[in-house]
Amino acid sequence: MTTNTIRKAVFPIAGLGTRFLPATKASPKEMLTVVDKPLIQYAVEEAYAAGIRQMIFVTGRTKRSIEDHFDTAYELESELEAAGKTELLKVVHSIKPDDMQVVYVRQHRTLGLGHAVLCAKELVGHEAFAVLLADDLMVGEPTIMSQMVEQFQEWRASILAVQDVPREHTRRYGIVSGRQISDRLVEVSDIVEKPAPENAPSTLAVAGRYILTPGVFAEIEAQQQGVGGEIQLTDAIASLMRREKVFAYRYQGVRYDCGSKLGFLQATVDLGKRHPEFGTDFQEWLLNSASAQ
Ligand code: G1P
Predict the structure, then answer these.
(1) For the chain: N or C, fewer Cβ within 10 A?
(2) Is residue 293, in this structure, part of any structural domain at all?
(3) Are 116 and 12 in contact (CB under 8 A)?
(4) How far apart are CA 186 and CA 159, in angstroms?
(5) What are phi and psi of 72, to 5 degrees?
């Protein structure tokens, strides 16, 4: 059964973040901060803006600060209140609006993205759900997840966010190919995890945003280890395609790969330039510092 709307989002956050060492030795990569918000908050806000109210974190060891971030900070809040700092209090409250529910399930061993999603099976139940990978920071208006929910409402099928990448980068992504339905939509007939450029069926890469039907859980359960010895979500989607239609949606917006140091810097500069408080000053500083060199 699939409902008309997407109510639940799964955030796999148990990964080790080795691409960002040493920063991620003792701190979760999802808590790395772009300008003034941790990556996980951007992803949660994106889901919330798409109407999703239940956030399911698939968490692991060393990730406690994420739970604290979305919890009440009693001392901080009462101090801000006593000091009459209402604006800051609003900022703190907005991290978890009252109508948002955050639930946690533990992934005891990091066996891959597919396995992480499977850990949320009982919490998701029999309805279509979203998956957001927080290290992909996605910026779009409307948000990328809102665009995807709209596609889901039209097609009632799994939707994968995709973008074109240079062929030499196919090894970093799940790569899809299929029949072009419209400018932005492809009916997927092939999906492969991290193929070598010469084997990639196309250059259309999956970004870290998915809407999946609940049928995907049985497919994950049936998976053997895939690329990198992991239980891959991509392989489960490939199996799902034998039973159901799966669509790839070329989203409108920008993706920053904040799991990589370069992508993280790009996000910091771009979002810094747009910041309502100091964006203009920052842009000016960038110009001056470029001309001073
Ligand atoms: C995961 C998925 C991959 C997808 C990518 C998007 O890979 O397995 O299919 O293209 O996210 O960021 P990871 O980056 O976790 O290795």
Answers:
(1) C
(2) no
(3) yes
(4) 10
(5) -70, 135
Digit-coded pLDDT (tens) for 169-192: 999 999 999 999 999 999 999 999
Question: Which pair of structure tokens corresponds to residue 20?
Answer: 């960002």
CA–CA separation, 186 and 175 (whole Å)? 12
| Residue 292, pLDDT above cutoff 80 | no
* CATH number where 144 lies: 3.90.550.10
Q: How many domains does one find in the chain?
A: 1
Q: Is residue 291 part of a domain?
A: no
Atom of ligand 1 nearest to the CA of 206: 10
Nearest of 57, 249, 217 to residue 153 by alpha carbon:
249
- In percent, how much of the chain has pLDDT > 90? 81
Note every long-range contact of 75-82, with CB atoms under 8 Å and residues 24 or more positions apart, other chains counting.
none
pLDDT digits (tens, 9 = 90+) for 111-145: 999 999 999 999 999 999 999 999 999 999 999 99
Per-residue CA distances from 196 to 168, 193, 202, 293 (Å): 8, 10, 11, 39
Best substitution site from 173, 203, 209, 251 to test ligand 1's pocket, by max atoms within 8 Å of Cβ? 173
Contact in structure between 13 and 131 (CB atoms under 8 Å): no
pLDDT of residue 142: 96
Report if residue 287 sits inside a domain. Answer: no
What are the start-end ranges of the H helices in the chain?
Answer: 39-49, 64-69, 74-82, 86-94, 113-118, 121-124, 144-155, 216-221, 233-240, 261-273, 279-291
pLDDT score recorded for residue 125: 97
CB of 43 shorter than 6 A to ligand 1: no
Q: Tell me, yes or no, whether 281 lies in a domain.
A: no
pLDDT at residue 157, rounded to an integer: 97
pLDDT recorded at residue 128: 98
| Ligand 1 close to Cβ of residue 175 (< 6 A) | no
Is the Cβ atom of 113 under 6 angstroms away from ligand 1?
Answer: yes
Element (H, E) at 11: strand 8-12
